[in-house]
Every structure is written in C-alpha cells, then in structure tokens.
Amino acid sequence: MADTLTVRTAGITTVQDLGRVGRSRYGLPVGGAADQHSARVANVLCGNDEHAPLLEITALDFACVPSADILVAVTGAPADVSVEGAARPMWEPVPVRAGDTLRVTGIRQGLRVYLAVLGSFTADYLQGSCAPDTILGFGPALRDGAELSLRRTCPAFDHPYSRIPLFRLHAPVPAFPSTWTIDVTDGPDRAEFADTAPRLFDAPFTVSPQSNHIGLRLRGERLPRRVTEGEVLSRGVPIGAVEVPAGDELLVLHRGRGVTAGYPVLAVVTATGLSALGQVRPGQTIRFRHRTLEQAVTAHRAQRGAVDALRTRVRTAFDALRIRAPDGD
C-alpha cells in the first residue's frame, strides 16, 4: 500500500503546478499557481522539478498527516507553520515524522501559501498539467479526509542542522507589503488613452472582494479612453492584461483568464508582477509602476537566477546529508 499524505483540515486547498504552458492555442487557460515564484521555490527546496505538483493553500488554515517520514517546504505569504505544535520555519526544508500533524495557520499579509513534499505526490493531469480548471470542472479543491499518494518518502535522519532550522539555504523571499507595487509595461491600446494613461500610476487602487484566480477587480481612478471610435473586437489577451471597461473598475487578468477578451488593454503586468499580484488580498491597496520591456526582462531573469542559485545550494546540502533528490532518480 502506497504511503499517503492525509488532509485533516482542507480550508481552501488545491493541487497545483506551474500551469498549461502553450495550451492557449486550444482555448485553455494556462492556470497554475497564482504566485509562480513561491511555488517554484517550494519545489526547489525539496529537490523537486519546479513543475512538480504541490499544494496551494488560500487564506484559510490547513493541516495534514503523512503515513511515512517526509521532507516538506512551505513558502508564500507569512503564516505559522508547526509540526506537532512545535514552530517550524517557512522557506526552508522541514522534516515531518510519520503520524505527526503539520499545520499551516494564520496566513497574513498575502493570500496564498505553497506546500511541497520531497518527491511530490501523484496527481491527475489534463493537457500536461494538474492545475485546476474551474470551467471544465477539473481539479476541485481538496476536502477534509482527502488522501494524496506520496511518490517518495524521506529516510528518517537526525542531524544537528535539522534543529537549527534545517539548512539555512537563504531562499529568495519576496516582500509582503501593506501596499503592493505592481510592475507593468505598456499595453497595445495605450495610445487610445492619451493624456489619461498616466493616471494609472498616479493613484492607488483597491482590490475588490469579487476578485479571483481569473482576474482582479480594482476600484480607483477612472481612466476614460480618448479614442472611442468603433468597438474593440475580441482578440487574444495575455495573462496580466490591465483592461479598462466602461465602468468604474479596472480588470487585471490572471492565470485563470480566458484566452480572448474585448476591452481595451492599457498595460500588461510583468512576470515578476504577476507573482506579487497572486498574493494581493481583497481590500489591500496596489500601485502600478511603469517598466520598459528591458527592465521587465531584467527583473524576471534576476528572479529566475536567484531560484537557480538556490537549486545549487539545495543539491549541495542534500548531498552532504545523503538525501537523494527526486531529480536524481
């Protein structure tokens, strides 16, 4: 019988990965972890491939119990992580003994926490990804009592570093501010807004409770179009498109967005900005910051470079402790 991870308190938790890259041509949303950076780091800290399935825990408390010794990593928004009541660090690998209860409680400042397990666990796939698709009804949220089959277990070990905390690997932890700064580049319809376009950067916007993984609704400064001849035809839109409907809200499309839309696109959120946007809670305030394409690419490469450097440190630490990383299977 395979070893399992049993969910005791599910809250709002889904099995995620980095999404259906390249499937937009078939009309499928890319989906995947809303905070791609935190999801990548969680898997890298466990020695997994960064695309491996992991858990996305949204807003509410979570608890689980493994049937075998495992190694986990918890990243994302600040939260209280404990094993059998003893506090454990985020953004570091943490050993959990068979039968011990791992809890994630008090998620704050951000919205989502990611939990990866060394070796990951089995998951159903659709078009190359286990990411949920709410339109198709694929990948529903987990319920209390759900069991996930572990692909690997971690041999029990007792090492001084496991109490310090474990590795002190200096993972690249992003900021979780009270007011978020979201980087954007120019959208394809910027010229239609003429002198009103700079208003996007002049005032804060508040995230509406109607926001979800499909997109965020923002309340704030109105941004009327100056060129209004004709209708905007439905067309392909990127993740991160900042759309301006006729009303008093902005729409910022996220990873669950449909592949076409028909509102003018004033700006597009950068790759690093999208991960930050995945952590913004309803009621929080965001400000947009303009970036050139060159600046956006540089920031993305720097973030990915930090994850690659972390991967090297993890492999060195695993080798020293004789933990066989999954990508070495």
Task: Report on the architecture of this protein.
With 329 residues, the protein is of the alpha+beta class. It folds into 2 domains: 4-174 and 304-328, no CATH class; 179-291, Cyclophilin. It has helices at 36-45, 199-202, 271-277, 293-320, and strands spanning 4-9, 13-16, 54-58, 62-66, 70-76, 80-83, 86-88, 93-96, 102-105, 112-117, 147-149, 179-186, 205-207, 215-219, 235-236, 241-243, 249-253, 260-261, 265-269, 285-290. The model has no long low-confidence stretch (mean pLDDT 90). This is Allophanate hydrolase subunit 2. Keywords: ATP-binding, Hydrolase, Nucleotide-binding.
Topology:
Layout (H helix, E strand, L loop, with lengths): L3 E6 L3 E4 L19 H10 L8 E5 L3 E5 L3 E7 L3 E4 L2 E3 L4 E4 L5 E4 L6 E6 L29 E3 L29 E8 L12 H4 L2 E3 L7 E5 L15 E2 L4 E3 L5 E5 L6 E2 L3 E5 L1 H7 L7 E6 L2 H28 L9
Parallel strand pairs: 12-20
Antiparallel strand pairs: 1-4, 1-11, 2-3, 3-10, 4-9, 5-8, 5-10, 6-7, 6-9, 12-19, 13-14, 13-20, 14-17, 15-18, 16-17, 16-19
Helix pairs in contact: 1-4
Protein name: Allophanate hydrolase subunit 2
InterPro entries: CT_A_B, Cyclophilin-like_dom_sf, PxpC
Keywords: ATP-binding, Hydrolase, Nucleotide-binding
